[in-house]
Amino acid sequence: MIEKTYAGICVSCNEEGYLTDLSQWNRQIGTEIAKEEGIEMSDRHWEVVNYIQDQFKKEVPLTIRKIGKSGVVDIKEFYALFPEGPLKKASRISGIPKPVGCI
After folding, report:
1. Positions marked catalytic
2. 51-68: per-residue pLDDT in tens?
3. Which domain holds residue 70?
4. How many separate domains does the chain show?
5. Which pTM was predicted?
6. Three-state helix/strand/coil letters over the chain
């Protein structure tokens, strides 16, 4: 377990940089993680983040295909919002563990 500081708050992360406790997450932390990933957050990004967190809380397994069929964002836009590994990046920004389906 690694501790990192985002927005002046110390949070627990795994060795890949994913938060290990969603309750430590807030929007400022998400914004700083997004900057590390080279992403400038917009309202559309936050809609996807909210959906991902909601699904995680409901213990619904996440896949790119499932997010593409969610009605929140289609697959093409998901890749445009979170280029080069959209599910990994979006999950990290959302403060949830890396989904099982991600390599």
Report:
1. 102
2. 999 999 999 999 999 999
3. 2-94
4. 1
5. 0.93
6. CEEEEECCEEEEECCCCCECCHHHCCHHHHHHHHHHCCCCCCHHHHHHHHHHHHHHHCCCCCCHHHHHCCCCCCHHHHHHHCCCCHHHHHHHHHCCCCCCCCC
